[in-house]
Each structure stands twice: as structure tokens, then as C-alpha cells.
């Protein structure tokens, strides 16, 4: 199959198509993780995006039945340098080519992914067309022109119905009950909470604060998710009510962190090309330690906008100084921009889930 990448500024990359025979429009971003392509492609936060992988060999350990972050591939396309069609891994059940064909997602290999990355670094993320069905450059230009980059994907990525998930712990203690405000959660976030003896209730996008509090949760968790946090207006409103009404512990990751910031009166902005990969250095001001973190975000919380709203900045990105975490000075509320659940990436910041558990226990004891 022919493989075509067309950028909105007219730049064309020709390679070979794999996966699904089709055409998609999305925002072209790059991910620097050296492993974890299956987890990345099934992370719902990539909905609407075409991922250019900087690691040059993709597909070499195949696709397994245990490495999914959700049930489907959310990215709209994937661009790789060398594609491996003969995976070596005892867990592998199929090649990435077959998987993407089944999942309806086009891929292109054999293009200069370094050049694409440099382009994004210089110009910022761009609108792009990926095609494996032999369309012409002028057709691609037209499709690109017509294509819309949406910001409200979180409304579609969240669960459609209230969903309860049992604790996975064999502890004798009664599980903590956590209300999960869903924006398109990664599976391993849920596992990290369930393994720490939490019973979860996932709520669809826009569920009213009253309904969530009627379930008498011990804590509220705000998930990751795709799109522009400012487009999550309904959820921001309900989170604002939850902060004012409940006083119970809250923890947010990525989109959850951004929504929390806006609900508190802060602002977010779009980064030039975002942070996506498995080795982003973050400084924790509380522990005075640096951690290597897994990241996937295109927006960030504006520093000045949030310190005036009762929040303390707890984490900073070591590459560009952007806000990576915050904590309320008086209320049991904290959040991080990076991914303590890893998947893929280092597990070094898993202690943040323990912190949330400790907060909920303390709050319960004081009640
Ligand atoms: N992983 C996420 O939750 C990403 C949040 C948001 N969509 C962003 O790109 O910044």
C-alpha cells in the first residue's frame, strides 16, 4: 500500500502504508517513548491525533492481550520509521500491521520520522492527513483543508453509563469508595486504585455533583482524557460544585489536573508541541527529588493563574519549567500533569496513589 503524510503547510512525506486502508485527518504529534507502542495507541488521550514515533523500530514485540489501556486504538494514525512484521515475544498474538487493520487505523512506515519531529519542534503541532489508499497530493490537501481539529473529545471518550469496579486487593479492610470523573481513563489508572483497595464508580461526562455525592464517596478522582480542557465546560462546572460542596479528598491526573485548575479559577494554554514520552524529568518541590515520568499532554496549567487561587505548585518540568503538579493550601486536593500510572514508562511516581489513599483514610478518621 502507498503511504502518504500530508501536513497543513503543504509538506509531503511518502512511505509505505500498513494497518487499515484508509485516510484520516488529525493533529500530528510525536512520542519519544522507546517501548510501549500498544499502550500508547490504546491510550484514549490520543483520540484525534496522529502519532509520529521517534523510536525507529516499531512492532518488534508484536501485540499482546495484556497491554491495552482501553478496548480500542484511539489514535487516528501512526507514523514509524522501520516496521517489524516478525515479532519476537511469547505474549504476542499478532503483528501491529494486522492489529491496526482490525482496528480501522492507518499507519505509514519508511518515512524520516526525525525530520517530521524536527518540523513539529520548530513549527509546533500541525494538522495532518495520513492516507494508505493511494490518494493524490491535491486530494490530501483538500481533505486537510476540510478536516476539523476538535477539542471536545473527552465528552465521547468517557464511559457512557455509571460503572462500578470492585477492589482488586485481598485486604480485610473495607474498600475505600472512589468516585471517578471520567474523561477517557487509561486502564492502568483504574488498576492502580483498585490494587490499593478502592472500589470505583465511574461517572459519565457531565454527571451532576449532587448525583456523585449521593454515592457518598471517600474520595474523588479526575481522569486523563483527550482534547482541550477548556472545552470540558460542563465537567468544570460540576467539579467547581464538588470543591465547594464536599471537602473530601480529590486527586487529578493530566486532563483531571487541568480541569481542576480551571474549576479553581486558573487557566490552561496550549504548548507548542506538548510532552509525549517515557522520560520527562520532573522536580518535586516537597521531596526535593527529581523523577523520571511518563507524559502525554498538549496543554498545561498557567503558573501565575493558579498560585493566586489557593494552590501551591508542587512539581515543575525540568526541561521547560512548566507546571507539573499542584496542591491546595487548605483543602485535600492535589493533581499532577504527568502519569504516575506509567503505562508505558517508569513507575517512580506511584507513591502519589498512596498519598491519595492516605488522604482519604485521614479524612474518614476525622469525620
Ligand atoms: N493525557 C491527558 O489527559 C491529556 C490531557 C489533554 N488532552 C492534553 O493534551 O493536555
Automatic annotation (TrEMBL):
Active site: 254, 339, 341
Record: residues binding L-glutamine: 45, 225, 227, 255, 258, 296, 298-299
Pathway in which the depicted protein is active: Pyrimidine metabolism; UMP biosynthesis via de novo pathway; (S)-dihydroorotate from bicarbonate: step 1/3; Amino-acid biosynthesis; L-arginine biosynthesis; carbamoyl phosphate from bicarbonate: step 1/1
Principal EC category: ligase
Gene3D superfamilies in the record: 3.40.50.880, Carbamoyl-phosphate synthase small subunit, N-terminal domain
Keyword field: Amino-acid biosynthesis, Arginine biosynthesis, ATP-binding, Glutamine amidotransferase, Ligase, Nucleotide-binding, Pyrimidine biosynthesis
Domain Carbamoyl-phosphate synthase small subunit N-terminal, residue spans: 1-131
EC number(s) reported in the record: 6.3.5.5
Coiled-coil parts of chain: none
GO molecular function per UniProt: ATP binding; carbamoyl-phosphate synthase (glutamine-hydrolyzing) activity
Catalytic activity: L-glutamine + H2O = L-glutamate + NH4(+); hydrogencarbonate + L-glutamine + 2 ATP + H2O = carbamoyl phosphate + L-glutamate + 2 ADP + phosphate + 2 H(+)
Glycoprotein as UniProt keyword: no
Location of region: CPSase: 1-173
Keyword Ligase: yes
Family: Belongs to the CarA family.
Function: Small subunit of the glutamine-dependent carbamoyl phosphate synthetase (CPSase). CPSase catalyzes the formation of carbamoyl phosphate from the ammonia moiety of glutamine, carbonate, and phosphate donated by ATP, constituting the first step of 2 biosynthetic pathways, one leading to arginine and/or urea and the other to pyrimidine nucleotides. The small subunit (glutamine amidotransferase) binds and cleaves glutamine to supply the large subunit with the substrate ammonia.
Entries under PANTHER family matching the protein: CARBAMOYL-PHOSPHATE SYNTHASE SMALL CHAIN, MULTIFUNCTIONAL TRYPTOPHAN BIOSYNTHESIS PROTEIN-RELATED
Protein name according to UniProt: Carbamoyl phosphate synthase small chain
Species this protein is from: Lentihominibacter hominis
Amino acid at each position: 500500500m502507498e503511504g502518504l503524510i500530508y501536513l497543513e503547510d503543504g509538506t509531503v512525506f511518502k512511505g509505505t502504508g500498513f494497518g487499515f486502508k484508509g485516510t484520516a485527518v488529525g493533529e500530528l504529534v510525536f512520542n519519544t517513548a522507546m517501548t510501549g507502542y500498544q499502550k500508547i495507541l490504546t491510550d484514549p488521550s490520543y483520540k484525534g491525533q496522529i502519532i509520529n514515533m521517534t523510536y525507529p523500530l516499531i512492532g518488534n514485540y508484536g501485540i499482546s492481550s495484556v497491554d491495552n489501556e482501553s478496548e480500542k486504538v484511539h489514535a487516528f494514525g501512526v507514523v514509524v520509521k522501520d516496521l517489524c512484521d516478525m515479532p519476537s515475544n511469547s505474549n504476542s498474538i499478532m503483528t501491529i500491521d494486522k492489529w491496526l487493520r482490525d482496528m480501522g487505523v492507518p499507519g505509514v512506515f519508511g518515512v524520516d520520522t526525525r525530520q517530521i519531529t524536527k518540523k513539529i519542534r520548530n513549527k509546533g503541532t500541525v494538522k495532518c492527513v495520513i492516507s494508505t489508499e493511494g490518494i493524490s497530493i491535491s486530494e490530501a490537501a483538500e481533505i486537510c483543508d476540510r478536516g476539523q481539529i476538535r477539542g471536545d473529545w473527552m465528552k465521547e471518550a468517557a464511559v457512557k453509563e455509571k460503572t462500578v469496579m470492585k477492589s482488586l486487593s485481598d485486604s480485610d479492610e473495607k474498600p475505600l469508595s472512589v468516585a471517578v470523573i471520567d474523561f477517557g481513563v487509561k486502564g492502568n489508572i483504574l488498576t492502580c486504585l483498585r490494587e490499593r483497595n478502592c472500589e470505583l464508580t465511574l461517572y459519565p461526562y457531565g454527571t451532576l455533583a449532587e448525583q456523585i455525592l449521593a454515592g457518598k464517596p471517600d474520595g474523588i478522582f479526575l481522569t486523563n482524557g483527550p482534547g482541550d480542557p477548556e472545552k470540558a465546560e460542563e465537567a468544570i462546572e460540576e467539579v467547581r460544585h464538588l470543591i465547594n460542596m464536599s471537602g473530601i479528598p480529590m486527586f487529578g491526573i493530566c486532563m483531571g489536573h487541568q480541569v481542576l485548575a480551571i474549576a479553581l479559577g486558573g487557566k490552561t494554554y496550549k504548548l507548542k508541541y506538548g510532552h509525549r514520552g517515557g522520560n520527562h524529568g520532573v522536580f518535586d518541590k516537597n521531596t526535593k527529588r527529581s523523577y523520571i515520568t511518563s507524559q502525554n499532554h498538549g496543554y498545561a496549567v498557567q503558573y501565575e493563574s493558579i498560585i493566586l487561587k489557593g494552590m501551591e505548585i508542587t512539581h515543575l518540568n525540568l526541561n521547560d519549567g512548566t507546571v507539573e503538579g499542584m496542591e491546595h493550601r487548605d483543602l485535600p486536593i492535589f493533581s499532577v500533569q504527568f502519569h504516575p500510572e506509567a503505562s508505558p514508562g517508569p513507575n517512580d511516581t506511584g507513591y502519589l496513589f498512596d498519598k491519595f489513599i492516605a488522604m482519604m483514610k485521614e479524612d474518614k478518621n476525622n469525620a
